[in-house]
């Protein structure tokens, strides 16, 4: 689980999805608010876990926020408070629900922390506090992503050519006066995410992820998927 995720190994995620089950993977993704940005239904095919559905950064960041919140999913909100001209304020509360078993969310966060220290983001590094995330690079470098979170905040960065990502790949491009042979998840999205998170969390005391329940999740080898403990579904990372 750790090394396959850290190295962003596509064949590992395909094998993981095969063992977990496609339907279970899709169900869990939907419970985390995953939906296509064009409004169409999710493509529920064997390559689902490799990221075949068009996403927007808010949707992806919010799904990661649910993992950071130990499985509690809260629908995105554009407005949290309105004050009228007479000074009367109306506050809007988020609509939240438990989407993942807290222990599964903790284990997922623990695996994703290694991406920043031992995986595809190790060259960029962490942000000086507990953090986790995942790089993403589409076929032929059409787009590049990094999404990540701390226990306090989640964010996602997506880079692509606004003229059309499939026609204008991120290969041999000059961005901000610098030439890139190819742009992957850790090339630009990762550093942008890192700088943004450091700035956004300035002055916020660091908090730690909840430790993994080692009695439940450690020591498993092949073909030892545990029986489902709840109706929250299984976990599959993008």
Automatic annotation (TrEMBL):
Keyword Calcium listed: no
Classification via Pfam families: Transpeptidase
Highest taxon listed in the record's lineage: Bacteria
Domain Penicillin-binding protein transpeptidase: start-end pairs: 8-162
Keywords: Glycosyltransferase, Transferase
InterPro entries on file: Beta-lactam/transpept-like, Glycosyltr_51/Transpeptidase, PCN-bd_Tpept
SUPFAM superfamilies xrefs: beta-lactamase/transpeptidase-like
Stated name of the protein: Penicillin-binding transpeptidase domain-containing protein
Species assigned in the record: Microtetraspora glauca
């Amino acid at each position: 689980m750790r090394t396959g995720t850290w190295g962003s190994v596509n064949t590992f995620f395909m094998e993981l999805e095969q063992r977990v089950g496609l339907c279970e993977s899709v169900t869990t993704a939907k419970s985390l608010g995953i939906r296509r940005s064009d409004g169409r239904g999710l493509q529920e095919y064997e390559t689902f876990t490799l990221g075949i559905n068009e996403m927007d950064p808010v949707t992806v960041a919010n799904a990661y926020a649910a993992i950071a919140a130990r499985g509690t999913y809260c629908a995105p909100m554009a407005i949290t408070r309105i004050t009228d001209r007479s000074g009367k304020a109306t506050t809007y509360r988020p609509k939240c629900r438990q989407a993942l078993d807290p222990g599964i969310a903790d284990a997922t966060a623990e695996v994703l922390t290694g991406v920043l220290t031992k995986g595809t983001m190790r060259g960029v590094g962490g942000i000086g506090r507990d953090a986790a995330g995942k790089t993403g690079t589409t076929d032929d470098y059409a787009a590049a992503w990094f999404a990540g979170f701390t226990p306090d905040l989640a964010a996602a960065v997506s880079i692509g050519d606004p003229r059309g990502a499939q026609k204008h790949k991120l290969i041999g491009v000059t961005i901000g006066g610098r030439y890139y042979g190819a742009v992957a998840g850790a090339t630009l999205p990762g550093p942008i995410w890192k700088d943004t998170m450091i700035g956004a969390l300035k002055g916020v005391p660091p908090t730690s992820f909840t430790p993994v329940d080692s009695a439940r999740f450690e020591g498993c080898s092949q073909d030892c998927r545990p029986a489902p403990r709840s109706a929250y579904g299984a976990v599959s990372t993008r």
